[in-house]
Amino acid sequence: MPSIHALANPTRFLKIARPATPVCFWSGVALMLFAAWGGLTRTPPDYLQGETVRIMYIHVPAAWLGLGGWAGLATASFVYLVWRHPLAALAARAIAVPGALFTALCLVTGSIWGRPTWGTWWQWDGRLTSMLLLFFVYLAYLALNRADAERGGDGRIPALFGIAGSVLLPIIHYSVVWWNTLHQGQSIGLTGSTIDASMLWPLWYAMAGFTLFFTGIVLMRMRTMLAVQKVEARMRRMARG
Amino acid sequence: MNPWPFVAAAYVLTAIAGAAIAFASWRSMVVAERAAEELRRR
Fold it and tell me: What are the sequence ranges of the domains in chain A?
């Protein structure tokens, strides 16, 4: 793991993160705006869902970031537990808040889509319930992290929780296969898509834009945590005289 | 049922939430890095 070891140095990490933060953030915003324009004005309405299908261009990327965020959090937690890289623990903590926010956005935009399409705001089916569970798991991780920091812990317990929580990811992914759900089955897979190309193209821009935006936010939060750590370390040194 | 209020609500909510987290993260980053830099100069 030479690249991870190289990045474990905060100075080296900041050298990359400083220029990468605005690049990720602004290119993400630009792609998101382009995808919104395409999704709202340049795609046809669906023959069954009508105009509400346009919510897909924010609902699907939000779901991707909720799931992908936890996968990143679990990977960073694993790297922290095995190789003891403090930056990995920082990355896991930095992912938690945007991950929780995008999971919440996925639930809310799905609910808004469900009302005119299914005739209900909420249904306790496999996909919706497992996604709601992921949101609660994010909140539990945030609470655990705060409690661990307050009692002067080394971050091992939140890291273990981060890895354990990843058991939800395959459950969410296969929920539409394992259970008879109101939520539709998988529309996009590795081998192709059941969505027509005329409606699919803005989704790729939205996925890329949301991911870059998310990366920009995570980098900002990591830089904040590193700066706070620096201030605290210097204050401790000054207090010791 | 007119679908456009639902579509608009989903987009506006996402825009507000995205702007809020971006602003909060950027603000705390600027404040923390400025404090670290000032302390380093002292």
Answer: 60-182+206-241
